[in-house]
Design a protein that fits this description.
By secondary structure, the chain is mainly beta. 10% of the residues lie in helices and 64% in strands.
């Protein structure tokens, strides 16, 4: 797999680097500054290499309903493993980097859910004064809950690549062209009466044209035009779900070192399915993750997501997902933090489906998630948390009404 991946992609990257190398240099790009800050603050240095190690520890506790189903199965679970990011800066201009994170997921009773998950990324970036060019690859092989529709944890392989070309046109403005693609390969597993692999195996491609304006040293405004293409692997599914999208976004990016952190992106999407009998989507989309430090011990945050996601539920090519949620953190002492987050979600399906007795309905699911935790700092930015959460789904299909509780431990590198 690795040989095939690099065999066709290295020539593309090399050509792009040569093109970028002849561009004029007059002002340092913000992407270059962000990348340089990352490799310079890496914890370890070994010769020319900069290394940032980490340990993954999450979901270590008791899960009351591991399949989010009406017949709950309770089990004890743990996800743990190492993670490392390695940087190789060459004359501070060409930066090679890679991240590897193998994670073992253990269920004490449900043996079939035990697994190793693998996450790999690699990047080559040319950091000139007025030009930033990058080529990226990623690969994952993992068993997870991939979305809010599928309650089981099917194994999925993702093979992706991408590239971007950014030019700093003035001290405050920059333009960027980017491309990314991903191939998704699910295991053959039946959920209700639907085969996950046959319904969701696909390739996605995106082309983006973006413009940035540096409002302040820690805030950027951006506009983004995106074109997407979605092709499914199996003929019957392709006839239903092959599609394309066009979207325009605007928003703000905030520095991770400021009082306001995160990103806000809101736009309008035209999602066209090639099958004329299917319902297209035209409307608002967006995503946001923002936190604000109001006072030294108090942080508030908010999240938002609205977009289409591909469905395997009967004749629905997709469902529209809406999620919004507030949260807050309170630092009681220098080494203790209290967290609370609430999430309110809704999945709306465009096509009707049979529910028995000759009745057809459009499925509508509402979600409520409460999460709380107390974190104890064990290093400068590392904290161990005692956490608890309650998840509930309320659907117009009574058989889909379910609840789940989780109590356990979590490790975070953001304190």
């Amino acid at each position: 797999m690795v040989k095939r991946m690099f065999g066709r992609r290295i020539p593309i990257a090399a050509m792009a680097l040569l093109i970028a190398g002849v561009c004029p240099s007059f002002a340092e790009t913000w992407k270059g500054k962000e990348l340089e800050a990352l490799w310079r603050k890496a914890a370890w240095r070994f010769g020319p290499f900069r290394i940032q190690p980490a340990l993954v520890l999450s979901n270590a506790g008791v899960d009351s309903n591991i399949y989010y189903s009406g017949n709950p199965i309770k089990d004890y679970t743990l996800t743990a493993g190492p993670a490392v990011t390695v940087y190789l800066p060459i004359y501070q201009k060409l930066i090679l980097s890679g991240t590897a994170s193998p994670q073992y997921v253990h269920y004490f009773k449900t043996k079939q859910e035990r697994t190793w998950n693998y996450y790999l990324t690699g990047s080559a970036a040319l950091n000139l004064k007025s030009v930033f060019l990058s080529f990226d690859i990623n690969y994952s092989d993992a068993r997870e809950h991939w979305n809010t529709e599928i309650d089981i944890r099917p194994r999925r392989k993702e093979d992706g690549l991408g590239g971007s070309f950014l030019v700093q046109t003035s001290r405050r403005t920059s333009l960027s062209l980017s491309y990314r693609e991903a191939k998704y390969d699910y295991e053959s597993l039946v959920f209700d009466i639907f085969n996950v692999r046959e319904q969701l195996n696909r390739k996605e491609q995106y082309f983006d044209l973006s413009a940035y304006y540096q409002v302040t040293s820690r805030t950027k405004f951006f506009l983004d035009l995106e074109y997407g293409v979605y092709k499914f692997a199996f003929a019957d599914t392709a006839a239903l779900k092959d599609s394309q999208s066009r979207a325009a976004y605007g928003g703000f990016e905030f520095s991770p070192t400021g009082r306001i952190r995160g990103k806000v992106r809101v736009g309008y999407k035209i999602f066209d399915i090639k099958n004329p009998e299917e319902t297209d989507y035209r409307g608002l989309v967006g995503d946001a993750q923002v936190s604000v430090r109001l006072a030294r011990p108090f942080v508030v945050r908010a999240s938002y997501k609205r977009d289409v996601d591909f469905s395997l539920w009967y004749s629905n090519a997709y469902y529209l997902e809406n999620t919004i949620g507030p949260g807050a953190s309170f630092y009681m002492l220098k080494f203790v933090r209290l967290d609370y987050d609430y999430s309110l979600g809704r999945n709306r399906y465009p096509e009707v489906q049979p529910i028995g007795g000759g009745t057809n309905v459009k499925r509508l699911d509402d979600y409520r998630v409460h999460s709380a935790g107390i974190y104890f700092r064990i290093k400068k930015k590392v904290a161990l948390g005692v956490i608890g959460s309650r998840w509930a789904r309320i659907s117009n299909l009574v058989s889909e009404n379910n609840k789940r509780y989780f109590y356990g431990l979590n490790l975070t590198y953001d304190f």
